[in-house]
Every structure is written in structure tokens, then in C-alpha cells.
Automatic annotation (TrEMBL):
Belongs to the diaminopimelate epimerase family. Its main location: cytoplasm. The active site is at 75 (proton donor), 75, 222 (proton acceptor). Gene3D superfamilies: Diaminopimelate Epimerase, Chain A, domain 1. Homodimer. The keyword Aminoacyl-tRNA synthetase does not apply. It holds the Pfam family DAP_epimerase. It catalyses: (2S,6S)-2,6-diaminopimelate = meso-2,6-diaminopimelate. Keywords: Amino-acid biosynthesis, Cytoplasm, Isomerase, Lysine biosynthesis. Substrate binds at residues 15, 48, 66, 76-77, 162, 195, 213-214, 223-224. It comes from the Bacteria. It comes from Methyloligella solikamskensis. Catalyzes the stereoinversion of LL-2,6-diaminopimelate (L,L-DAP) to meso-diaminopimelate (meso-DAP), a precursor of L-lysine and an essential component of the bacterial peptidoglycan. This is Diaminopimelate epimerase.
């Protein structure tokens, strides 16, 4: 392991990332080190750690780890950040980013906005995945609170490279997502756990969203949750297929295209600072005998 490991600190609408690059030097990937880097008290602090790797199929491969050290398939906000890095590297505005969930084409605008083709949503119960069969994933039988007067019920579920569960509510602020988010994340119906969101439709082309992220907790924004909520709102005919999604960290535009069913996510990215990982944060490899 190299002594000095360079990192970039980036964010998409306040959803923040430590970005490491295996193409420059060997980087740690064990869950303990990832969690130590992500720790906001003792590490650098972030929602996700992103590890860049070489690939022959796209401009870059991004591996995604949650703050708890778990590896996942998709992160919308980080994809915009990585697309911006790839555009600088490749000296062109159209780039392709490979993830564990597939290759995502992206367009980096001169205005600091990035449009990412997040692919086609997976809607079948076994693609979410759920551990029991549901014919209609727009509204599954799941509720929180008393049987005859549930506080929240009938969420939509979608997989956009990662699993999402979305409760549509009249008032986002009336519910304590920090309290029930971790419960729903770990419900046995979600064998791979789930990202949990509250969505409030405010017009036929706008919604407000708050997300409890699997493996990271409450975040200022979640790009894949915005895609999942937009698709679910359109499937329920609460909105059209193009919506502005307002998150605590700012707005994304999501367009679930009619012609090919792909989801286009448009939003900003930012590079906050660069540095090297402090000594002691990275688990030392044992010395050869
Ligand atoms: N912040 C992300 C999603 C990151 C992964 C998620 N927590 C999961 O476990 O699936 C985004 O912007 O999409």
C-alpha cells in the first residue's frame, strides 16, 4: 500500500463522497477501512466512498461503498461527480461510467450540470428484490403502525441499480424518517435491505423527497431515490414523466423517457477539496514473514 493515498472530497447536492483512485495507487477496500474513512468524527467523513478503477468498456469504473462499508450497485449523485472527473480526463463532454449495475452514459455541461442516463427501472418484485411475490410493485402491502390506523402504508418499490421503497405522504415534515427509516431498511421483506424515502407530490411536475439511505442514514440528497420516486409517481399517475425533485440539498430534474424507458437525471456536482488520507486511517497490510 502506498504511504500517501490521495483523495478527492466531492458532493452532489450535499450527498458527499471521498473519491479514491486505484489507477494512481493501491487503495484500501476492506469494510473497516471504508467505514473509518467515512466516519465524520474520526475519519474524513462522507456518505459514500467511491473507488475508481480502470476498465476497457467505459471511461472509468466506479465502485461504490456506503459509509457502513457495504458495497452497492448505484449512486446517482456520485455518478455525476465521477462523470465530471472523466470529462476532464478524456477532454470531452460525453463520457461513459461503468458501475457494478451497468454502464451509464453521461453528458457534462459547461454550466456545471451533468445529465446521466440511469438506465431502465426494474419493477418486478424479484428484481427489487422482495422476499415474497407482489404483482403490483406500485403499491405493496407493507405498513407501519396500528393495523387499523397505519401511520405509513402501501409504499412503491423500484430498483434503479439499487433497491428503493417510497412512501407517498401529504406532508413530509409530519413524519420522523430518522426513526422509522432504519426499521424499514431492515424489514425481512427486503433481503438486500432498502433505501427508504418519503415523497410529497406538490404539483403534476414536482415532488419533495427525503431519504434514509441504506448503509448511510439520512442524507441531504439521494440521486437514485429521486429517480425511483419520479418513476413511482408517474406509475401511480400522480405526476407526468418529467419532474423536478426537491431534496434538502437542492433540486434534480428527472425525466423518465417515454421512447426507451430510460431515466435521465440532471443535476450539479462539486469538488470540495483534495488531500491525502491521514496515517492510521488505513489498515496496514501485515509484513511478509
Ligand atoms: N447516495 C446515492 C445512493 C448510494 C447507495 C445507497 N445508499 C444504497 O445502499 O443503495 C445516490 O445518490 O443515489
Amino acid at each position: 500500500m502506498a504511504d500517501q493515498i490521495h483523495f478527492r472530497k466531492m458532493n452532489g447536492l450535499g450527498n458527499d463522497f471521498v473519491v479514491l483512485d486505484t489507477r494512481v495507487h493501491d487503495v484500501p477496500r476492506d469494510p473497516e477501512t471504508i467505514a473509518a474513512i467515512a466516519n465524520r468524527q474520526t475519519g474524513i467523513g462522507c456518505d459514500q466512498v467511491i473507488v475508481l478503477e480502470p476498465t476497457s468498456r467505459a471511461d472509468m469504473f466506479m465502485r461504490i461503498y456506503n459509509a457502513d462499508g457495504s458495497e452497492v450497485g448505484a449512486c446517482g449523485n456520485a455518478t455525476r461527480c465521477v462523470a465530471a472527473l472523466a470529462a476532464v480526463e478524456q477532454e470531452r463532454l460525453s463520457v461513459r461510467i461503468e458501475t457494478a449495475a451497468g454502464i451509464l452514459p453521461a453528458e457534462v455541461g459547461a454550466d456545471g450540470m451533468v445529465a446521466v442516463d440511469m438506465g431502465v427501472p426494474r419493477l418486478r418484485w424479484d428484481q427489487i428484490p422482495l422476499d415474497e411475490e407482489f404483482h403490483d410493485t406500485k403499491r405493496i402491502e407493507l405498513q407501519l403502525g396500528p393495523i387499523d390506523d397505519p401511520v405509513l402504508h402501501s409504499p412503491a418499490v423500484v430498483n434503479v441499480g439499487n433497491p428503493h421503497c417510497i412512501f407517498f405522504v401529504d406532508d413530509l415534515d409530519a413524519h420522523d424518517l430518522g426513526r422509522f427509516g432504519p426499521l424499514v431498511e431492515n424489514f425481512p421483506i427486503f433481503p438486500e435491505r432498502a433505501n427508504v424515502s418519503l415523497a410529497q407530490v406538490t404539483s403534476d411536475d414536482a415532488l419533495k423527497l427525503r431519504t434514509w439511505e441504506r448503509g448511510a442514514g439520512l442524507t441531504k440528497a439521494c440521486g437514485t431515490a429521486a429517480c425511483a420516486a419520479a418513476v413511482s409517481a408517474a406509475r401511480r399517475k400522480l405526476t407526468g414523466r418529467t419532474v423536478k425533485v426537491s431534496l434538502p440539498g437542492g433540486d434534480l430534474v428527472i425525466d423518465w423517457r417515454e421512447d426507451d424507458d430510460h431515466i435521465l437525471m440532471i443535476g450539479p456536482y462539486a469538488l470540495d477539496f483534495e488531500g491525502t488520507l491521514p496515517e492510521g486511517l488505513v489498515k496496514q497490510e501485515s509484513a511478509p514473514l
